[in-house]
Amino acid sequence: MSFASHYKLDNLVAIFDVNRLGQSQETAFGHHVEVYKNRAVAFGFHTLVVDGHDVAALTAALNEAKSVKGKPVAIIAKTFKGRGITGIEDASDWHGKPLGGKSVAAVDAIMALIKNQGTTALCPKTPKRDDAAVRSQSTVSMSAAPSYKLGQEVATRAAYGTALAKLGAGCDRVIALDADVKNSTYSIKFKEAFPERFIECFIAEQNLVGVAVGCGTRGRTIPFVSTFACFLSRAYDQIRMAAISQANVKFCGSHVGCSIGEDGPSQMALEDLALFRAIPGATVFYPSDAVSTERAVELCANMQGIAFIRTSRPNTPVIYANDEPFVVGQCKVVRKSAKDVVTVIGAGVTLHEAIKAADILAAKGKNVRVIDLFTVKPIDGTTIAANAKETGGRIVTVEDHYQEGGLGEAVCGALSEESGICIKRLYVPRIPRSGPSKVLLDMFGISAKCIVAAVDSIC
Predict the structure, then answer these.
(1) Which helix (H) or strand (E) holds 428?
(2) Cα 199 from Cα 99, distance rounded (Å)
């Protein structure tokens, strides 16, 4: 309601059906419609109280709502559950229950209340304006390809903002929404380029997701939502319901894992992969450098449904050429030799730790294969299994995430029907603390040094 009032949404009419009853008892305010009215007024709504069973009163309220300018409208409609049905009207303990033997009498009572039981000409009018055409199904592309130098240090969160701005330049149906952390998620780059297509939702993540779902209806826009990944847990119900509603929303969660450093565990997303992997039909990206991040954003725009991009705070080196192709559900083998004795799988910051570990091990005469997962869901089980079998059936997974629901579990699930494969998992084993990023990677067992020790322990 604060959002609607702040943006003066005078095309919004909220109708409150105040019927007094909850599921198990009377609601907190029952039929005290004045309480609802005062609260709506406090939020800046033009507010009307009506008898919700009086069609003429409802029509008059809706007509008045059309003339209100500069603020949203709330219609507080006092109603009675089961109106007109003897023994059921305004009675508790009927929520979600069949009427059983009372059904015939109930139907008769309802039919008696219908004044015109014949053919009626009443029907909704065609909208006078429909000025937002349905989005074209043609390929959505960034206005320019990635343009980085190999080895250049770039945070994937910054690459997300760059890609989003280029995507906005390439398609005018792309919009961006943020929860007052746009200068950290880098969606501010989109706002600076296309302020009219940026929606600031403030620190209200549930509403953030709800607004995005609404914006994406009828295929009119491609909404990209960004905030710290840990804060998306506040909106899990909305994300879950978005999937059930077959919504088309793209999420970017930044500041993931203990690698964010000094901000501490309240800001560290360590459950977000589990959250989005559990959403039916969702695609989960975990890019490891600026190039793969830009391509993940572009891939998201061309997909239907829920997608999540996990971006990191620290700067990491670019490892891919600007023209490197990326495909949903395909991982990348970034280090390989004929003498590899184990396959190490990482993503994001841990991929770079895995590459460092591979260099340390190579200096000791032990070669390891390194895989960048890129998409955690769907996972490329075929490539992982093939590489594991070429490296003695040994795998080490390493992730800046808790044990449950993350990268390691995804790999284990993908290989559950494969025989002869041993998987050793490295993950954040407990609630972290504040500290320098590199120190925390070491402390919580996911640094290059820890990967070396894990490899040495199994081969």
Answers:
(1) strand 422-428
(2) 46
- Is the pTM higher than 0.70? yes
Sign of CA dihedral 181, 183, 187, 193: positive
| CA pair distance 405, 270, nearest whole angstrom | 10
Rounded to 10°, the helix 290-301/156-170 angle is 40
What are 113-125's pLDDT values in tens digits? 888 777 777 777 8
Residues ≥6 apart with Cβ < 8 Å to 122? none
Instruction: Write the single-letter amino acid at 52.
Output: G
SS3 126: coil
Distance CA 157, CA 294 (A): 10
- Asked if residue 157 lies in contact with residue 254, where contact means CB atoms within 8 angstroms, the answer is yes
Contact 179, 205 (CB under 8 A): yes
Alpha-carbon radius of gyration of the chain: 27
Is 262 marked active-site? no
Give me the phi and psi of 376, to 5 degrees please.
-80, -30
Identified catalytic residue from 192, 200, 205, 418: 205
